[in-house]
Amino acid sequence: MPELNQYRTIIFDCDGVVLNSNFQKIEAYRNTAIKFGASKEQAQALVDHHVALTGISRYVKFDFFLKNILKTSITENKKKFLVDTLNDEVIHLLKDCQIAEGLASLKQQTVNSRWMIASGGDQSELRYLFKEKKIAHYFESGIFGSPRSKHQIIQDELPDDTFFPAIFLGDSLYDIETAKKFNLDFIFLYGWTDLHDWQKICKEMKIRAVKSIKDLIH
After folding, report:
1. What are phi and psi of 169, to 5 degrees?
2. Model pTM?
3. 140: Cα separation from own chain's centroid
4. Cα–Cα distance, 64 to 124 (Å, whole number)
5. Is 37 exposed, middle or buried (0-12, 13-18, 19+ CB in 10 A)?
6. pLDDT tens-digit profile, the chain (218 residues)
7. Which CATH architecture has domain 4-20+99-216?
8. What is the DSSP string of 156-200?
9. What is the maximum alpha-carbon separation in the chain?
10. Is residue 212 classed as helix, strand or coil in its secondary structure?
């Protein structure tokens, strides 16, 4: 695999890669379900679904929550309440979460590469948090999230060969699948992942794994 400075585009996932936020997101989903009126068992079922589908849009997860866990109708009002509540919970819980060490140094090391965020998190929420944490300027090619899926983001934002070669830095099975779908090189960052069997998956799929962003700095 080439060194990072040979890529025209470097795509970062957010949760578990740039921000140590996976486990705060879990609590945000739990709190949102409770505020919606779910029981503790139903809230835990949403959390389990969220973890199983790490990297997938919250809009998809809330459809599942309403239809399969609560067994109720899916309406725009219900989804708006869930999305708005989750946004508030995430911003509250992530305000003080840890930022990956080494972003500035890695940026200097890859001055010829364009950086981009492709996340399952809400796009407006991501842009607000990155601005508040003063890291938005690193990602000159954009900070993108749901309601578009990561597949849609990659397809829309890397429209032609001028963006390639490209590499994706992620921490979930969906990130791996996204990279494979679009023929992107991939590095798995395991330091903050919530994917329990990541070692087995990376070994079987021959995926390079490093603990954190700072481990990519030379």
Report:
1. -105, 115
2. 0.89
3. 18
4. 23
5. exposed
6. 568 999 999 999 999 999 999 999 999 999 999 999 999 999 999 999 999 888 888 999 999 999 999 999 999 999 999 999 999 999 998 888 999 999 999 999 999 999 999 999 899 999 999 999 999 999 999 999 998 999 999 999 999 999 999 999 999 999 999 999 999 999 999 999 989 899 999 999 999 999 999 999 98
7. 3-Layer(aba) Sandwich (3.40)
8. HH--SGGG-SEEEEE-SHHHHHHHHHTT-EEEEE-TT---TTHHH
9. 53
10. coil
What is the number of other CB atoms lying within 10 angstroms of the CB of residue 124? 12
CB within 8 Å of 5: residues ≥ 6 apart: 109, 110, 111, 112, 113
Quote the tokens at residue 60: 């998809």
The pair of three-digit structure tokens given for residue 210, joined into one six-digit string:
């490093």
Alpha helix positions (H), the chain: 22-36, 40-52, 58-64, 76-94, 103-109, 123-132, 150-157, 173-181, 198-205
